[in-house]
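Dear colleague,

Thank you for sharing your sequence with our group. We've completed the structure prediction you requested, and as agreed, I am returning the results in plain text so they can be pasted directly into your records. Please verify that the sequence below matches your submission; if there's any discrepancy, let me know and we will rerun it promptly.
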Amino acid sequence: MKTRATYLPMDLFPLETDDLPEGKGGFLLFLDEANQAPRSVQAAAFQLTLDRAIGQHKLHPNTAIIMAGNNETDGGITTKISTPMMSRLAHFEVEVNHDSWINWANNNRIDHRIISFIHLRPDLLNKFDPSTQNKTFSCPRTWEFASRLVKSNESLDHDDTVLLASVLSEGVAREFVSYTNIFSKLHNINDITNDPSGIPIPNEPSVKYAYTGVIANNISLSNAEQLLKFLARLDVEFQIITMIPAIKRIPELNTLDCVSNWKVENIHSLV
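Please find the predicted structure tokens below.
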């Protein structure tokens, strides 16, 4: 008869006796909003962060531990991190980067109008200001919300502006909806493929960015050659922000001679 209790850790912790997931090199233990935890909970994590153990159970040696949380000055709900916990961590400040976000957005099917708008106005990706009196603001999280709201709408109107203002703030919503009006004035994909060398291209950067979104979203194996003829009339930066997400979405594009030739011609810009 056993006379002692044994602590069993929760199954979300990767232990040294666990097998690595197939095709993976280790585990990531992500403790989000760590500085919202009361100090008693922080104290419970001392052993986890320093000794990499849960009770008498050791974490898997291929486990990385990351904590995240808002700065105290951000206006979020925070509890001051205790000095013992501070000394157990390496501290990094993370900033929003529009190139990284656009790469993520292209891989996660964010509405192409939003992606091209952020190319045009990277300053509007993150308008966080802890002193603002607005109920919301544009940031990577709220742009994802916005994408869900507009993705099924080919054109946006006043009602969409009101809806988008509820997640982005009124000023940013108005700017974005005003930008999307450009799309109704663009030549459609069929027009472009039928006359890629003759379609007029205005000099306004906003129009060029809009075309990059349309083409990246509509290119296919059958129309790539014609669309690349049209793209060749744009500055190389516009070509690149069109083709990189297009190739990621349709890897088979790499098998086309026209795409291979385009890569060779722009190899120095792609590096």
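Summary note from our side: The chain has a mean pLDDT of 91.

Kind regards,
the structure core
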